[in-house]
Amino acid sequence: MERYLPHLFVVNFVLTLVDASIGYHAAPLLVRLTNGGEEAEESATRTVRSLLAAVVGSYMFLNCLFYFNPRPSLLLTVTGFIVVDMVCQLWLRRKMEGEG
After folding, report:
1. What is the pLDDT along the chain (100 residues), one digit of tens a residue?
2. Which of 46, 63, 59, 48 is nearest to 19 (CA)?
3. Cβ distance 24 to 89 under 8 Å?
4. Rounded (5°) CA angle 26-20-35
5. In this structure, how many other beta carbons lie within 10 angstroms of the beta carbon of residue 16?
6. Would you say 62 and 37 are in contact if contact means Cβ atoms under 8 Å apart?
7. Using alpha carbons only, what angle is made at residue 63 by residues 60 and 64, rounded to the nearest 5 degrees?
8. CA triplet 62, 69, 16: central angle to 5 degrees?
9. In the 8-state DSSP scheme, what is residue 2?
10. Helix pair 5-31, 72-99: axis angle to 10 deg
């Protein structure tokens, strides 16, 4: 497993970037659930996108932590979280686009 750590590190980095781009574009769809006014939707979109930066930072911190302090099982756990996050965002986006 140790020989696959660099590959997993790079895959996590790419997955995090893809996850961030999906989240950035899915944020306005999430905000439509609030049924607020236009100003409230803009504010909520900015808030969701700001929280996205914190999530991406957390993923990258954990990715680096578990790579440079070799913990393959925890690095795989981070990969799982990223993949689940992406799948949930894509599912929610598809569901929201179907309703709109």
Report:
1. 788 899 999 999 999 999 999 888 887 777 777 666 777 778 878 888 888 889 999 999 999 999 999 888 999 999 999 999 999 988 888 887 776 5
2. 59
3. no
4. 25
5. 23
6. no
7. 90
8. 25
9. G
10. 30
